[in-house]
Amino acid sequence: MSEVKQTINHTPAIVLGLAIALGPLTALSLGSRYASEETIARAQAGAENIKRRELQAAEMLKPKDVQGLPAYASGNSVSDGRG
After folding, report:
1. Structural domain tally of the chain?
2. For residue 62, what is the DSSP state?
3. Phi and psi of 78, rounded to 5°?
4. Torsion sign, CA atoms 61, 66, 71, 75
5. Of 1, 44, 57, 65, which shows the fewest CB atoms inside 10 Å?
6. Residue 80, in any domain of the structure
7. What domain range includes position 53?
8. What is the C-alpha to C-alpha distance for residues 33 and 20, in angstroms, rounded to an integer?
9. Whether pLDDT at 52 is above 70
10. Is residue 56 part of a domain?
11. 12 pLDDT band (50/70/90 cuts)?
């Protein structure tokens, strides 16, 4: 008996995979050429909003100043509260 070896054509899967992987990159590179002025304005407004949010987040993460402690806690240490 002879065995029949069946080959599988992977070409459509490879083409589809490349299209999925490279499609967004193509859209990013060609999109700026063919985008309308309104689309570019929206993108710039979004970038400004992101910068503003990043600045707000950075402000919130700054360490608090010791001078901002309430008066009742300013003369105490951690070991004073363990009595």
Report:
1. 1
2. S
3. -65, -40
4. positive
5. 1
6. no
7. 33-61
8. 21
9. yes
10. yes
11. very high
